[in-house]
Design brief:
single chain, 107 residues, mainly alpha, 3-stranded antiparallel beta sheet, globular
Length: 107
């Protein structure tokens, strides 16, 4: 059996679809958050790593908590494991909510 492969880098479009973040928002966050620096090739195409995607998940959490964008870089510097647990809990709750809505639509 062949193990599923994980990509090393993702395009901005793939990340946008994966995290449901509009492309302009990703570009804005890249300008505003010093820790978010995807690789770029000579054509300025962005390539996001798993680490970049985890940073984006943290930013989504900050936005959901109404934390101002200007505070995001400082909060990311804390590298708080509790933050990662909160991010994961939020993602799990959103997944359950989506499943419940899908079930409701079947009725």
């Amino acid at each position: 059996m062949i193990a599923p492969t994980t990509k090393v880098y993702y395009s901005i479009k793939e990340v946008s679809e994966m995290l449901q973040i509009p492309l302009p928002t990703l570009r804005f966050w890249e300008r505003e958050v010093q820790q978010l620096k995807p690789r770029k090739n000579a054509g300025h195409t962005r390539f996001y790593s798993e680490e970049d995607i985890q940073t984006l998940r943290r930013l989504i959490y900050f936005r959901s908590q109404n934390i101002p964008v200007k505070e995001w870089s400082e909060r990311l510097k804390l590298n708080d494991n509790q933050l990662d647990r909160k991010v994961q809990a939020r993602e799990n709750l959103l997944a359950v909510k989506a499943e419940l809505e899908a079930l409701r639509n079947l009725l």
